[in-house]
Write a structure and sequence with these properties.
The complex is a heterodimer of chains A (116) and B (110). Chain A has 116 residues and is mainly beta. Chain A has strands at residues 4-7, 10-13, 18-25, 31-37, 44-50, 53-57, 64-70, 73-79, 87-94, 106-107, 111-115. Chain A contains no helices and 11 strands. Chain A starts with a strand and ends with a strand. In chain B, strand 4 (29-37) and strand 5 form a beta hairpin. The chains are: A mainly beta (116), B mainly beta (110).
Chain lengths: 116, 110
């Protein structure tokens, strides 16, 4: 099973709402990632979790709050977002970096978020 | 720092061969990934080069020259379904974090 699942597929929320994006993988990967992708742009890294611990936060505003409850799940909690936060949010997972080799990431289908 | 460049758009004919170039300047370089992304879909892994040379996988090949900071993705026998964005991404030693280039939008025409 090489699938990463994300829910919901689409989300529309107001600037005062609180919502969460969910991501799940069952490949035994210990590294999980959140990316933001705007139209016609490449994905931008937001957060990296390694063995359920946050290892990288790419200067993301605090209105985005990641959480890794266990090795298979990754959440992104959203609060007080701005219209410019509208984008495709992609989750990915991979084996963790070991012994000089980096590993390919498997991406989920994404959540298309619209902030009104 | 990371700086990865690739052409923004390319057009090629069905059945032809196309080469998508990627140049990079990265600190602590540990290889280059190529991903394919169809419109509205997730990126999917195509190849990973960490050593110099050519890696071939069916119709797709990827090449890396570390001394020149250069890579390319070669697509042979183009099919209409190959119309997609092709993302070049560098990775640093000790991490799997991907630093993507701008992506090359390839259009295959009949």
């Amino acid at each position: 099973d090489t699938e990463v699942t994300q829910t919901p597929k689409h989300l529309v929320m107001g600037m005062t709402n609180k919502k969460s994006l969910k991501c799940e993988q069952h490949m035994g990967h210990r590294a999980m990632y959140w990316y933001k992708q705007k139209a016609k742009k490449p994905p931008e890294l937001m957060f990296v979790y390694s063995y359920e611990k946050l290892s990288i936060n790419e200067s993301v505003p605090s209105r985005f709050s990641p959480e890794c409850p266990n090795s298979s799940l990754l959440n992104l909690h959203l609060h007080a977002l701005q219209p410019e936060d509208s984008a495709l949010y992609l989750c990915a997972s991979s084996q963790d970096w070991v012994g000089g080799r980096s590993y390919e990431q498997y991406f989920g289908p994404g959540t298309r978020l619209t902030v009104t | 720092g990371q700086n990865i460049d690739q052409p923004t758009e390319m057009t090629a004919t069905e059945g032809a061969i196309v080469q998508i170039n990627c140049t990079y300047q990265t600190s602590g370089f540990n290889g280059l990934f190529w991903y394919q992304q169809h419109a509205g879909e997730a990126p999917t892994f195509l190849s990973y080069n960490v050593l110099d040379g050519l890696e071939e996988k069916g119709r797709f090949s990827s090449f890396l020259s570390r001394s020149k900071g250069y890579s390319y993705l070669l697509l042979k026998e183009l099919q209409m379904k190959d119309s997609a964005s092709y993302l070049c991404a560098g990775v640093q030693t000790g991490a799997n974090n991907l630093f993507f280039g701008t992506g090359t939008r390839l259009t295959v025409i009949p």
